[in-house]
């Protein structure tokens, strides 16, 4: 951690793999993370949670994290589904949804009749062959197929192991239809820019902390922010030799990151 | 159809979309195709069926086609599963199989304990989220992940509509693991070369007839063969503007192709 940390006015935290490890049982907090969030809130730093989580509405997601001991509220969360809804409305797009059942309510106000695009999220068990075929047929039947993806993550870690994320299925549909998806979650620039706007800070005043070398670290750096990678969640030692992305620093976990940053601020 | 057709000594026929349209009910023959196969067999031309079909053993597949009225036997068929078995044996690879239940017997003699690679075929309903995760975990747990794909088709047509093919799921695993699959079916050069060897002809003496612009037409042309695209099966008008592949001729169906070629031979 170096002098640049002293310029920090805001922290952006990824959630899954940084605050907690998700899982069918609701997940488990990562040691020290709840206390680290409290320390940030007691400091002069602003805070925003930036998640690509699309397995639940933000309300449900936040309630789960509160249950795990985190001080977090819905209006502190930047997530892909509301970003997608803005895009759909602006462009008069009517989506066929291939998403987790629990995130469907985020699209309640969107017209879904006679779809002219597909929105794909981390649908988990909804990624059946039948459902993927249905989304494929909507796309291949359109003159100008539009595929909006709520993220481009490869995989994530749950308590019972690694799971494929939305990015893998986005690639399957891209290949089948010979198209490029539009990504509205991390690492899309628009996503980080909207979080920075919500915080009211410049990129060079913000530090992103995440476990995903490409989507958290690379995405934030592309926006002009500093970014730390935690060695929790989906972190793997091979990440430290990533050919394109190099974090501004590695930390063992969120607790260590926050202690180091606060230490710099107080020097 | 031009003078080059007079040099033909052998025809290679794709099966699904050329002989018949597959489907849950067993499929339906394409009008005139059974008669066209009989005409080839009555002519001086050699014949080989080249399929990426991996939803059944060759025995079962051939029996189905015989039931639809086609004159075809197992030893006339070049298919990806036997090609994959040769590769597995040569390289001491023990596969985790993500394939259709009905093609598993093709791998009966292959050691599958403690897998050190994944073989993916057109698994259809076996492409569940759970099964894809399982294959992903095998790959991501290997020091040198090897993914062997029985094809790279995007989709195919069944009687009840278009279905995603193995290529889409291959891409999902490639992306998730940041690897490149090795394809043993069409359009792999090795696949066409093995069919030509089985026929005992040179590439310039052979004509491929298929409905897939990339895997049939492009793959065969890469091997130095002429190739026709039929306007049946998965053919779509947009194929005629393909940015990279241009068939040597278009024909409405196999019957027309065979009549035109035989006409040239007799001139």
TrEMBL record, chains A, B:
It comes from Apteryx mantelli (North Island brown kiwi). Pfam families: Hydrolase_6, Hydrolase_like. This is Phospholysine phosphohistidine inorganic pyrophosphate phosphatase. It is found in: Cytoplasm; Nucleus. Its EC number is 3.6.1.1. The gene is LHPP. Phosphatase that hydrolyzes imidodiphosphate, 3-phosphohistidine and 6-phospholysine. Has broad substrate specificity and can also hydrolyze inorganic diphosphate, but with lower efficiency. NCBIfam families: HAD-SF-IIA-hyp3. Belongs to the HAD-like hydrolase superfamily. Keywords: Cytoplasm, Hydrolase, Magnesium, Metal-binding, Nucleus, Signal.
């Amino acid at each position: 951690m170096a002098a640049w940390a002293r310029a920090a006015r805001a922290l952006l935290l990824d959630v899954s793999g940084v605050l907690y490890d998700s899982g069918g049982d609701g997940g488990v907090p990562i040691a020290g993370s709840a206390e680290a969030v409290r320390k940030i809130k007691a400091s002069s730093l602003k805070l925003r949670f930036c998640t690509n989580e699309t397995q639940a509405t933000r309300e449900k997601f936040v309630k789960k994290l509160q249950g795990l001991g985190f001080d977090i509220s819905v209006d502190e969360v930047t997530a892909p589904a509301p970003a997608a809804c803005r895009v759909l409305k602006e462009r008069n797009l009517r989506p066929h949804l291939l998403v987790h059942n629990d995130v469907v309510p985020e699209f309640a106000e969107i017209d879904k009749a006679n779809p002219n695009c597909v929105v794909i999220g981390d649908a988990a068990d909804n990624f059946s062959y039948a459902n993927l075929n249905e989304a494929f047929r909507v796309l291949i039947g359109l003159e100008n197929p539009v595929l909006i993806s709520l993220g481009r993550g490869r995989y994530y870690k749950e308590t019972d192991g690694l799971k494929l994320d939305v990015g893998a299925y986005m690639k399957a549909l891209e290949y089948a239809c010979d198209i490029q998806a539009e990504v509205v979650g991390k690492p899309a620039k628009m996503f980080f820019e909207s979080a920075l706007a919500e915080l009211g800070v410049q990129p060079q005043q913000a530090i992103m902390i995440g476990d995903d070398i490409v989507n958290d670290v690379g995405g934030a750096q592309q926006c002009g922010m500093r970014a730390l990678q935690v060695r929790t969640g989906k972190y793997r030692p091979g990440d430290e030799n990533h050919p394109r992305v190099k974090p501004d620093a590695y930390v063992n976990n969120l607790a260590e990151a926050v202690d180091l940053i606060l230490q710099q601020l107080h020097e």
